[in-house]
What does this fold into?
Amino acid sequence: MSLDCLATRRLSLRIGTRQLVRNLDLEIRPGQCWCILGRNGSGKTTLLHSLAGLRPVEGGEVLLNGADIHGLPRRQVARQLGLLSQDHEDVFPATVLETALRGRHPHLSPWTWESATDTAHARAALAQVGLTELATREVGTLSGGERRRLGIATLLTQDPRFLLLDEPTNHLDLHHQIEVLQLLAGLARTQDKALVMVLHDVNLAARFCDHALLLFEDGRHGVGPCAEWLTTEQLGRLYGHPMQWIEGSAHPVWVPA
Amino acid sequence: MMKKAILPLLSLLALAVLLHGLATGSLDLDGPTLRAGLMGRDALAAQVLWELRLPRLLAAFLTGGLLALAGVLMQVLLRNPLADPYVLGISGGAASGALAAMLLGLGGIWFQGAAFGGAFGTMLLVFALAHGRGSWTPARLLLTGVVVAAGWGAVIGLLLSLSPDGTLRGMLYWLMGDLSQARPTAWSGAILLLGLLAGLALARPLNLLAGGELQAAALGVEVKRLRYGIYLLASLLAASAVTLAGSVGFIGLVTPHLVRLMGARDHRLLIPASLLLGGTLLTLADTLSRSLFAPQQLPVGVLTALIGVPLFLYLLQRGSARP
It folds into this structure.
């Protein structure tokens, strides 16, 4: 097995009595941009958390650079792999910059404070998602979309090799959806990062991702290049609703039939 | 307020309140007498200062510091700004032990042992019950603690109703928090120091935990281990505080918020600042409790609320910073 990859071997996931994934073999390599598609409750988030080593698996293994992710110290994992979760929990007050700076944690030893370099990292990340002006604002005063972009900035500050994102376009307006996905997909091309994104918009997935993981209702899955799996027939089967392909657009477009 | 100035300012405030406490009481001492007493040149003043006031002031400062630290930790552990050191039943357990000891006429080390035993036993009980078969969420821990605390409330009511009138007053004072019998002990000082050092060592992970458990784990925090550590530490701090001075209310809940309102939200600053402010507030409250209606002494718990409530509401209303 190659060393520079996030992989699963015969991975099985279950919630309660429901089998979400059975015997999944997956290899995610730097430079690749993956989407995870499926209906509500099909196990997209569970799979993403499992890939991050944040929940026990019911069978098989998750391998980070060839090693079982559950056997690695969390700090070591966090230097390699980051997660943007679906929601943000802000119970206690913090500023935007303080929140972004949390991304540096895995890179700092226990008794050190963030250096000027760390702050520069965080500011650069905030600039990338267009939050520079809001650096001193309280997180509680942000709009949903701004908070989402701050989550992405924290992930960029963490600067891991593998970026797992649970619905990164949640709460974002059309403009920011495209901008954020361009930014993220660009990381795969220019910085050789690997991205795995849970997405609900198949058109955005087809436009920005090169690999797809489809989680079907019956516990089966499809893994492979987008060209192979993002087809009218497979998408119709995935969502349990016939899809229609719209011709003549610059990017692939499906609409529910 | 400038963040860098918070610790020096709070230190100065602590010093001022300690000096004020030394000078104030049924016998007010002016500057020269105070100095003479501290140097041992005035026998009466020396006795009042070294044997009565200083130990009591130190006990107050220790208790306040312990409570404030425990409050900071409990609020992060339960991810609930309303949590205080007693929310998981620690003070109820300590009170049940202490009142039972009073009822049996036990004093000194037995009395303290009973209070600490009640607190520590509650900590183990809540931990075991909340842990169940391995799923320990903040909500489950909080519910378990609140229900156990309610159970202790019933035990306290029972003990009070069984007690003869002669001991009732002492019991009520203890329940409200009372420093008149409190003496600083080496072990409570050691526990406060341990709490401060461990708190500072865990400060950055605590910042992350405050932002959510999943996010903290994704950023490299060993969340489960950290939670166990905080729970143990916060319980130990709270148990030490109640053993010293009974269940002094309000300090543990409000001090962390006051410090946050001053602008210190990073736990590396929040932890030492809360310790200083908690100690200062309780010292001030205790000085007032023994001087306002001297020679009559009020239970200090009454004063902590009387000072804390308007101060907190004023800062909250000013609205310059969110809590």
Chain A has one domain: 6-92+160-256. The interface with chain B takes residues 49, 52, 54, 73-79, 82-83, 85, 88-94, 98-99, 102-103, 105-106, 108, 110-111, 113, 138, 140, 158 of chain A (CB under 8 Å). Chain A has a mean pLDDT of 93.
